[in-house]
Amino acid sequence: MKGILESSHRRAIRREWSNRGMSLLFNFELTWLAGLAGFAVRSWLVFLGAFMLMMWLRRFPIFCLTMCVLFTANWVFGTWGLSYFDNGWSLRTITLSVFAFVVFGWLHWRGLDELNDIYAR
Q: Out of the domains of life, which is the source (predicted)?
């Protein structure tokens, strides 16, 4: 019985680590977006302000959901654009777009669940 509990505990720890890695992508994307805002106006203060604002807004589920949808769309259309300019409308372009949607949608959805768990505690 003790071995079963230890095995369940190890699985729970692995899942927790996996979930934390999923939200890491979301945090990198928010940092990239803040950096883009700072780069657009050529100001470190704008970058820091945007970064602090996004880290504060991260506590609200509607902000996280909106940003996850936008970032997933960004990855999908970016993948589509890169493939389209090489291959035009082809099976490869459509397949890569669907694959990007599934992978990045799943990653963002898992990260969103993890962020909701953190702020629900």
A: Bacteria
Q: Is 90 or 117 the better-scoring residue by pLDDT?
A: 90
Q: Which amino acid is at 38?
A: G
pTM score of the predicted model: 0.70
Any idea which residue has 């203060």 for tokens?
Answer: 45
Give ∠ CA 105-101-118 in degrees, rounded to 5: 10
Q: How many domains does the chain have?
A: 1
Of 106, 109, 104, 121, the C-alpha closest to 64 is 109
Inside any domain, residue 2: no
Residue 4 lies in a domain: no
Q: Which domain holds residue 52?
A: 15-120
Q: What tokens appear for 50 in the block?
A: 């945007």
